[in-house]
Structures are given as structure tokens and as C-alpha cells.
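Mods, move this if it's the wrong board.
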Amino acid sequence: MKQRVLIVDDEEQILKFLATALEASDYAVISARTGREALHMIATAAPDLVILDLGLPDMDGKEVLVRARAFSNLPVIVLSARDREAEKIEALDLGANDYVEKPFKIGELLARLRVAARLAAHEQAKPAVFEADGLRVDLERRLVTRDGVPVKLTPKEFDLLAFLVHHAGRVATHRQILLNVWGPAHAQDMPYLRVFVGQLRAKIEAKPEQPKLILTEPGVGYRLWTED
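Not the wrong board. C-alpha cells:
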């Protein structure tokens, strides 16, 4: 069966362009032009993925995201002309799976959709082992190897890596990581996080000075790279 993508945008040209591109890539497309309509369709039309604009006529897209997250975990990719880092960070903190800025290249958006769909399927299967670029992380046994060689991590380094693994392919914001790995007392301690990321890269990256696994999203957070 084709995957169903719900496009939430009030611009007719964007809707038509996206619908044409997605249908050509073998997606089934449904659309909504308001936040209320989007919430109704998320609840009743069973989409597999959502592309959500933030500038809707009846409510901010971030409010749609908050309301949707109260009853649904389906992947949501925010598509917006708002380019301020604060907007991007807030949308990700509220539960967006990814963020693509307008103007955008359709190839990039399609790639983000594929990653979001694949990760959603993986989350449902709850894999206990993560593998990419020679790195192997066994979450249940708390074992990490690099090209078959055991990697010794401190408990906190493993907790940081485990959080990134659980969000692999998605942007994890600085605040999300700090709250979940270190707790509220360190919620704003970004220099502290950078030190630990540097330590972790030194242990798991083939070339720590040119990281391929733990990627920096400037001003936002980090993304653990996954193999397609």
C-alpha cells in the first residue's frame, strides 16, 4: 500500500506542487488548509506522515503540533519560511521529527520523508541494536563496538549515545539532550554538552575531526547519522 502523506498548508501553489511531487514518488496525498482541519484528519484519516506549515490561518502550526502529540506519534516534518533558529528549536522541542526551510529542494524533502518513515517503523519494532558506519550499539547489554573492537564508555557517555540512538536520524535539540541525560539542573549547560559530545566522538568516530556519525545542527543540536 502507498504511504499516505498529509500536507498542511494554506498556500494553493505549495499544495499543488507538493502533491504532484509526492504522487510522482508513489505517495498517496491528502491535504488540509487549516490547523483544525489538520487535527481532524490526523485523528480520522490515518496518514502515515505529516508535512506541516507553521503559518496557518486559524492557529500557529506549533499549536497543531502540540495538540497532535497529545494523541498521535506519527512523523511530522515542519515545512516553513520561518528561518529563525528559535522557531526551529521550539518546533523540534514540541515534537517535530524534522524541519525543512522554505524555499526547499524537493529531493531533500523526499529524503527527509523516507528517513522519518523508516525510523517510525524501527521505533515500532523497538530494535535493541543500532549499527552504522562500523559502529554497533547494543542498548540492552550496554555494549559498544567500533569495527568489532570494544569501545569503553563512561556511564554518562553511554547514556548520551543511547539517547542519540533512540533519536537516530532526527535532530535532538541541546535542551532535549540535556534534560533527558543530565536533568533540569543542566538544561542550559551547552558547553557541558559540547565537552561530552567531543569525548564521545573521539571514541566512536573513525575521524573525530571530521565526524560522520554525530552531526552538528548549528545552533540547534545534534543528529545521529543512519544508513539508508
